[in-house]
Amino acid sequence: MLSSTLTTSNIPKKRVAIMGSTGSIGTQTLEVIKQFPNLFLAEVLVAQNNSELLIKQALEFNPNAVVIENKNKYPEVKQALSHTDIKVFAGAESVTQIVEMESVDIVLSAIVGFSGLASTINAIKHGKPIALANKETLVVAGQLISELLQQHKVPILPVDSEHSAIFQCLVGEYLNPIEKIILTASGGPFRGKDLAFLQNVTKEQALNHPVWKMGSKISIDSATLMNKGLEVIEAAWLFNLKPHQIEVIVHPQSIIHSIVQFEDNSMKAQMGLPDMKLPIVYALSYPNRVQSNFVRFDFLNYPELTFQKPNLTLFKNLKLAYQALQTGGNAPCVLNAANEVVVEAFLNNKISFLGIADTIEQTLNTIPFFNPTTLEEYQQCDKETRAITYSLIK
Q1: CB–CB of 157/131 below 8 Å?
Q2: The pTM is what?
């Protein structure tokens, strides 16, 4: 009889570059590393602005190197770590280059937004496996990323709970065609609310997610359902699917993380308590499963699992994402850039909650269509989109 459990001593330790170590996914990844010190090592920590937390993390986990993207914070980080052997770098170029280190075994891509794209591309070009938590990478440049992954024979392991669920359901099923996948959504903090309520939503309300603990940008995306829209586009590239093969349903309990339906009409669902550490561990330890002390799910605590259709009239960001995926070319890049701008504006009280989707739609209708093929073209499209979106807000 085969043993059902792999001991940690049988699995080589992986040295992880955490791109975005001070964010929600980054901090939870460090919690995972702390729980599994025989399996994972924090080799590189990268942050954009949060120098205080980066210093704290570096002193606790003693990585080989850290990078602070904001060069103005470099003296502070350098001084705080001067008594250690930790290498300290700064600037966007260093963020991109640090993934090239030979000592890095896997890159966890968790920098929020478009800014995570360049380092992920460079990691792929240097043969580094990608644990992908930055959905914008595939949303913005899915065609380019797919070509690079194939060219450099690099595996990509999804960290988003929904895509990890689909990935887990497909293990052992690669020769069996998918009829469709079903991505589940919690519905966010405004599930069931009407137009009158949404007209007066505050950022504090939008940030108060009922299930998941996330960063501010992702929390707002969840409230508008843009997060699910971005996941639809990401899923299309990850699993080679057409828009009509991706369905979204609202599942408030967030126990079923996503479902695969095969051509014989059988379905597989991946279930578990809403805890991002589960897909993080799975991505870092794949193809192995490791024993954890995470809280176990009990069906008796969830006697009802419910499902609803998303309201695309009130939450039209999801509809806009489907349209951008169907259009292709630069449309998803425009969608993402416009969304990043309006979310920032909403967090700074410069736009209303309903104005988020309205402005994104205006931007999509303004930017001319073309097919980007290089990182530089995607960067130019992103830059132009942001300028136009800013002008629409003002």
Answers
A1: yes
A2: 0.91
